[in-house]
Amino acid sequence: PTQDASPTMPPRRAGRGGGRTGRRGRGGAQDSPAPAPRPAPVAAPVEDDDMYQEPYKQIIRPHNQLTNLSETELKEEHTRVLTANDPNKANNITKYNYKDRCYKLDPEGAGDHLKIHFSLDGCVLHKDSQDAKEQEAYEAQKKEFEEEERKKAAQQAAEAGEDDMEAETQESGKNQFNYSERAAQTFNNPLRERGVATKPPPVVGFSATVSQWDIYDSYMNDYSNQMAEQEILKNAEKKKGAGGGQREATFDEPTQATAKGSKDDMVHSVKMSAALKILERMANQNAEDEIFQDFKYWEDASDQFREGEGSLLPLWRFQTDRTKRKQVTALGWNPKYPDLFAVGYGSYDFMRQGSGMICCYSLKNTNHPEYIFSTESGVMCINFHPNHSSLLAVGCYDGTVMVYDVRNKMNRPIYMSSIKTGKHTDPVWQVFWQEEDLAKELNFFSISSDGRVANWIMSKNELKMEPVMQLKLVSTVKDDPEETSLSGLAGGCCFDFNRVSEHLFIVGTEEGKIHKCSKAYSGQYLETYIGHHMAVYTIRWNPFHPRVFISCSADWTVKLWDHNVAHPIMSFDLGNAVGDVAWSPYSSTIFAAVTSDGKVHVFDLAENKHEPLCEQKVVKRAKLTHVNFNQVEPIIIVGDDRGGVNSLKLSPNLRKVHEPYDEEGVMIEHDPVQLQIDKMDRLLAAADTKPAAS
After folding, report:
1. 364: Cβ contacts below 8 Å, ≥ 6 apart
2. Do 41 and 57 contact (CB within 8 A), yes or no?
3. Phi, psi at residue 148, to the nearest 5°?
4. What is the pLDDT of residues 393-407, one digit of tens each?
5. CA 328 to CA 343: how far, in whole Å?
6. Global pTM?
7. How far apart are CA 29 and CA 336, in angstroms?
8. Exposure pattern of 195-206 as b/e (b: 16+ CB <10 Å)?
């Protein structure tokens, strides 16, 4: 603040050295203390000729300014934030909302904090208004008056002999003193003619005389061919009913019979079908280009900043109109073609059973399935053969097992069990192909709620059933007379064969018990594992470690087991019934589980042994039933109880292999399989092998 000595002069802005309030210092002082006020000089006598005097400045320290500030306090900066809010505007106005029947705060409007500093009314008139009409009449009257004055002046000039004034006035339409003509000429592109001359297609003249007898002969030939095809189909049906499933008679003969007719039909030929399939895939990939780009190249960059967490990127949802009212009961990837997977449709609601369906989808065409097969009973399980990738084993709700060849276009299996050759009496919950020897025939195993594990051999003419084991009930309390009086078989829900010891397999039952069995001992269990309290839905051997397997149950838990230890090594409570669990094909410590609340849980025991790295809700108002890892691509597929299959891409944190590196960051040479085995061994050594106290 400043004070001028001359009261007559207007005050001037104080200089930089004055008491200007700045951002430095609490009291607005500068680095150096303000000088002491000096006495005002005595004013000189003022003459009338020179009334202007140079004003002088006097620095006055404010009474509230601090004087004893340190250097640190003086250098401290205080930032003030200026806002455009009006402090006089009320911000808590409450009005009654009749829709919600309660009082709510009135939101601020767009112009509540607007202040108008200057406003000016315009002078524009509407052309249809009364003021505009009056102005136009005034301008027209003024123009007529000026025209009359000009004519009078011209007449007076003509009488005076000044004839050139009118001509000069009319010619001078430009300002002769400040005018220049400017012109521009653009370049005109020359006209071009372009023509293309194509070679016309060859024209062949054809003419024939057709009589009524020619037309009759052609119709009779076509009718005889149709009758021959129907006769062959009838013979094939008879042979199939007598033999139980002859593959050659069912499929090969009709193909030979229709070969002659299909050669001439270009539209329905094999080459046309292949060309249309390629075009359909191209159109589908162009329409969903963004999703295909994400599937192939997108990686979640946020995984670099969140250690121990991951995410799932939704890609496609596979669904058809015919499967909306069915539930996904089985999933299986093809071992040879990594883009092809099969989906089994049935129903877990035993009071609402109907027909089943099998759809084979491809990631190259996500809009429609490649193959569709219908079954009389609901499909409960499927499994592709590991070597013959076109063979698909199927188990149904009525106890029937079938074998389909997906290469055949006809909607019926090549092998099917019957009461004559053997059949389960309850739903078949899982089928599993056996790694056959060169001398043996193709065979697969099945497990059912009737308490039997069976082996099915594909002989030349029929599907033979060989019982492997009967699942007997095991008493949990010793010397209990009520338990000893029980008789019957335990309902089998799932099973899996060991990758190293082929004779060894484990079975999960409806009672919640897990039994270790062997194909060499069909009368007794090798070991019984007690840990679950409800039905065991899925059980899986670890693909790398020969001793470890995992199980999930309706009691909301997923448990990790060592088959040499009778109690679980680890247990994970997921808060809802667990429908399925699956090991990853690239790491021995990563597995995924799906629950009835629509969530997918992905664990990596090498990163976190207590919580999942990813817990993500995939579907709304639906229960997830199954999950399966792709063997090549970093994606998983999950099925729900509304007939849909969702594909999800794993983020980088969910597919770590934990490869060894030296101090310089160079990868050390190692055996990838042995690396995963050692990683699981370290996890087993760190786990508590003592049973939990009951």
Report:
1. 281, 284, 285, 339
2. no
3. -65, -40
4. 999 998 899 999 888
5. 7
6. 0.60
7. 82
8. eeeeeeeeeeee
